[in-house]
Structure formats: C-alpha cells, structure tokens
Amino acid sequence: MEIVELQQPQLAKSVDGIVIDPSGAALPGVTVEERSADWKTVVRSTETHENGRFHFSRERKESTYNLQFYRAGFNWLRLTAQLDRTAKKMVTVKMPIGT
Question: What predicted TM-score, i.e. pTM, was given to this entire model?
Fold first, then answer.
C-alpha cells in the first residue's frame, strides 16, 4: 500500500465530493475518513455511493478538513480540503491505481 498525499489544499464549497478512477469513471465503495490535524485519529467516516459521491455534514465550524480515501486495488490518498463558501465546486478526487 502506498499513501499519496496531495500537497496543495483543495478549495471546496462544502465537505462533499466525488471520487473517480483514472479513466474518469465514478468509484463506489471508497472509504472516506475525516482525520485529525495530525492524521492519527479518525473523526468520522463514510463510503462513496454508487455514483462515487460522498458527503459529511458540517457539524464542526472548521474550515480545514483532512480527508483520507482508500479502496482495494487503489493507492490510499490523502488531501486537505479548505472550505470556502465562494468556491463553485466540490472536491473531486482521482484515485491512483495501486502499485
């Protein structure tokens, strides 16, 4: 298993998005975890639906969320989502094929 970290924070309007494979097809069944600032603790978890979408309610007033994605056959992926109400998009995550 390799963990790929995206260094650039992703701007998003809310804590939801879509997970796709390298061809652009939606990926259902991806585990999506919100993690603590040090990445050690799972705050909450969900799974992508058949259309590859995931959603976390905004229970917290944080503007930065650490998200970790994993599914068998793919490398794990970590990214930081920076919420911005003026952003016009949701998080789009392209999962890399496992090595």
Answer: 0.84
DSSP character for 88?
Answer: -
91-94 sheet: strands from edge to edge: 53-55, 16-20, 91-94
**Model confidence band, residue 3 (pLDDT cutoffs 50, 70, 90):** low
Look up the CATH superfamily of 3-89: Carboxypeptidase-like, regulatory domain (2.60.40.1120)
Per-domain residue ranges of the chain: 3-89
* Amino acid of residue 95: M
Which one-letter DSSP state was computed for residue 74? B
| Residue 34: how many other CB atoms lie within 10 Å | 19
Instruction: Count Cα neighbours of 7 within 13 Å in the Cβ-side half-sphere.
Output: 0
Q: Which residue has the higher pLDDT, 98 or 48?
A: 48
Cα-Cα-Cα-Cα dihedral of 3, 6, 79, 71, to 10°?
Answer: -40
